[in-house]
Design brief:
mainly beta; Jelly Rolls; five-stranded antiparallel beta sheet; four-stranded antiparallel beta sheet; about 35% strand; globular
Length: about 150
């Protein structure tokens, strides 16, 4: 008997090598080449901007404006990874998703991803995300991108 995922949600996370991160910081057009081989986002145009999240910054639910959204942490001070300062939190925005008894159906529980330099997160544009409050003595510099 095979099991079929009815609501597949491809979320890709990676920690970029220092050289790839430096190239991307200098030239955001390099983003598609850093996506997983065969990912449909490699062959579409992207728009991007660099955001600085200073101490105290946080964001309620946000969504991408394209088919795919990517966030790449370009700079962040060293901090305790156990803290949620500036963490990226992914959410399923569909009605009732938080009430589903089995994780993964339809998508799963919120996922918290620490924002350390080089973190790449690639998600479908419909998936909601938010930023946990950034500690007052910290900041994050993040490249946010959306595909066409």
């Amino acid at each position: 008997m095979s099991i079929t995922g009815l609501w597949p949600t491809p979320v890709h996370t990676a920690l970029l090598a220092a050289g790839d991160l430096a190239r991307l910081a200098d030239d955001p057009t390099q983003l598609p080449a850093l996506l997983p081989a065969g990912h449909p986002g490699r062959d579409v145009p992207w728009t991007w901007r660099t955001e600085k999240w200073d101490g105290g910054f946080h964001a309620a639910l946000r969504h991408g404006t394209g088919t795919w959204s990517a966030l790449v942490v370009l700079d962040a001070p060293a901090h305790d990874r156990a803290e949620a300062s500036g963490a990226l939190i992914l959410h399923d925005p569909r009605a009732g998703a938080a009430n589903v008894g089995l994780p993964g159906l339809p998508w799963g529980r919120p996922v918290t991803i620490p924002t350390v330099p080089g973190t790449l997160v690639l998600v479908p544009g419909w998936l909601a995300w938010q930023i946990a409050p950034v500690h007052p003595d910290e900041h994050r510099t993040v490249l946010t991108a959306d595909s066409a």
